[in-house]
Amino acid sequence: MAKNFSGSSVLNDDYYIDTDSSEEKDKAENGTQTRFLKCGKGKSSKITFKYIGKGIGQIAPKEKPKRKQLLVMDWKKFHRLSVIYSFLDHLEKDFPAICTVSVIGKSVEGRDIKMLKISNSNASNAAVWLDAAIHSREWISTAVVTYLADFIARNFQDLSNSVTNKDWYIVPVLNPDGYEYTHTRDRMWRKNRARRDGACVGVDLNRNFSCGWGNNGEEGSSDNPNSVFYRGPEPFSEPESSAVRDTILSSATAFKVFLSFHSYFELIIFPWGYKTDPCPHYLDLLEGASIMARAIYESSGIVYKVGCTKDLTYYACGTSIDWSYAIAKIPYSYMVELRSKKYRFKLPKDQIEETCVEIWNAVKSLMDYVDQP
Ligand SMILES: [Zn+2]
């Protein structure tokens, strides 16, 4: 079970993030405007302004800025991109010996695609890839991956060798444009925000990878830009999928595990998605998936089904896991479809923590399994 889990990550000194539209709300309700001012050594305080005529004149703060701890990251609700990214930066600041944040690419709309690497820099380590929100409406995936990052970084000294002998490459929001769009405009948006002829159509990033791209016609993906499964004009046409390819292929460390998190079918699936044949390591992948599913069941009682993509779902052509397995040669490549079949994409927030814990147990078990001789 999880150790020392407090359910939150407190950013204790210098960050205050405006996560909603409280600024506009303040203005509408009170005739005042809230700003966040930097003062002192990176400290921010919330100061209220009042409109005086056309300009804005500063009046005395309503109350003294409090030097209290400000909670911005937890696993009790789903968070905006700014919170996720400042959380990564704070992990790097709090654990500089093992955490490094980098930008592995820019989205179509120019947002950073941030990655956290957790590593003790041991040259014999193998690498593990974790990504989430390649499909933007699948919010629980980002919550799970940030939980794993937080847990591994904070408990690193106490964790088993099979966890600490890995370099963890963690991308909590692979599709940041879509992710923000699901928070501001359309909760059910799946694709990136690619434009065509001036209008946003969006590409299904998990049909934009090169292995099996475009196979099986409209069954495995779509060439219709209006489809939710639109594969894009060519493999890796999109900066988000290209960032995954470039990061993995340029890594000096060999990857052993690739886990891409989705929702909501409660499945652990592996190649192939683009054809019906079993992949060459079918039995090993099935065993690893079964070990994860058992750990989940023992953690929460939820049964995740296991099998290859085509058997458990449908043709899915141009997926990241077919590419990571076949082209990047990552032997344990899985797509994990998180909860929940009942609530679909709108998992109640009171299930976030339990989902995170069950997946931590699964990932930990997989690390033991892949280290067996
Ligand atoms: Zn998905």
From TrEMBL:
Keywords: Carboxypeptidase, Disulfide bond, Hydrolase, Metal-binding, Metalloprotease, Protease, Secreted, Zinc. The keyword Cell division does not apply. Gene3D superfamilies: Zn peptidases. Pfam families: Peptidase_M14. GO terms for molecular function: metallocarboxypeptidase activity; zinc ion binding. SMART domains: Zn_pept (SM00631). The keyword Hydrolase applies. CDD domains: M14_CP_A-B_like (cd03860). The active site is at residue 337. InterPro entries: Peptidase_M14. It is found in: Secreted. GO terms for cellular component: extracellular space. PROSITE patterns: PEPTIDASE_M14. One of its GO terms (biological process) is proteolysis. Residues 77-370 form the Peptidase M14 domain. Its cofactor is Zn(2+). PANTHER family: FI01817P-RELATED, PROTEASE FAMILY M14 CARBOXYPEPTIDASE A,B. Belongs to the peptidase M14 family. Involved in the digestion of the blood meal. This is Molting fluid carboxypeptidase A. The lineage of its organism: Eukaryota, Metazoa, Ecdysozoa, Arthropoda, Hexapoda.
